Amino acid sequence: MSENKKIAMVVSDGTFDKAMMPFIMGVTAASMGMNVHIFFTFFGLMVLKKGAKPKMGGMFRLFTGMIERRMKNAGVESLKEQIETAKDLGIHLYACSTSMNVMGVKESDLVEGVKVVGAAKFLDIAADSDVQLFIG
Amino acid sequence: MEPNETLDALGLSCPMPIVKLAKRMKGLEVGDVLLLLVDDVGAKEDVPAWCNRTGNEYMGMEEEDKKMKFYIKKKD
Q1: pTM for the full model?
Q2: Which residue segment(s) compose the domain that A47 sits in?
Q3: A28/B19 CB distance under 8 A
Q4: 8 Å CB contact of B14 and A31
Q5: Which fold is adopted by the domain B5-73?
Q6: Per-block mean pLDDT, blocks of 10 residues, chain A (136 long)
Q7: Nearest residue in chain B measured CA to CA from A86
Q8: Which of A79, A87, A96, B30 is deepest in the core (most CB within 10 A)?
Q9: Mean pLDDT of B64-75
Q10: What count of other Cβ atoms lies within 10 Å of the Cβ of residue A3?
Q11: What is the pLDDT of residue B20?
């Protein structure tokens, strides 16, 4: 068994595709034995709100339902299910405290198990990660 | 090759076959062989990569039409 790798992701956008990507990557990484840390900032924070239903960006917004159905047909879990899977796999989810203040989001608005942190805490984790990804 | 268990991931796209594979392997004993059925073409590269990363043994793959049969041996 190779040593456990660590992956840190930043999500700064809350459109449907940007919301799904970190969870698809994250649950795969966790399934490969990696430690996964995901930091949600700016519009990415909206992904962590209870009952979040992200839409596709721009003119593709109208096709969100179609994409959701196609993903379901492809056997991919919904965002809500993936968030649960992520938590079951021990993935660490962080909400940016400044974004919460700016967007008026309270801790009670977020799904359970999210840790509210600032940039320094996340950078401390990212600094000794093997993989860093930016999704935005 | 006689597998100890079979995991049917047919009809599932990435990342679900790998997520289910990881979960199922946890329940196996060291030395057990799992047969994994997948039809998502990404699995052809993903399953060996998963084995490489997790230290389990990739024993090979058979393809029938679009169906892939992977054999994976659980390691320590």
Answers
A1: 0.90
A2: 6-135
A3: yes
A4: no
A5: Translation Initiation Factor IF3 (3.30.110)
A6: 85 97 97 97 97 95 96 94 96 96 95 95 94 96
A7: B19
A8: A96
A9: 96
A10: 7
A11: 96
Q: What is the CATH number of the domain that holds A14?
A: 3.40.1260.10
- B26 is written with which tokens? 């946890």
Residues 14-33 on A with a CB inside 8 Å of B are 24-25, 27-28, 30-33
> What letter does residue B28 receive in the DSSP assignment?
S
Which helix or strand (DSSP H or E) is residue B9 part of? strand B5-9
Helix/strand/coil (H, E, C) string of chain A?
A: CCCCCEEEEEECCCCHHHHHHHHHHHHHHHHCCCEEEEEECHHHHHHHECCCCCCCCHHHHHHHHHHHHHHHHCCCCCHHHHHHHHHHCCCEEEEEHHHHHHHCCCHHHECCCCEEECHHHHHHHHHCCCEEEEEC
Q: Residue A62 is which amino acid? A: L
Residue A98 identity (one-letter amino acid): T
Query: pLDDT grade, residue B40 (50/70/90)?
Result: very high
Q: What is the interface size between A and B, counted as CB pairs within 8 Å?
A: 51
The 8-class DSSP code of residue B42 comes to: T
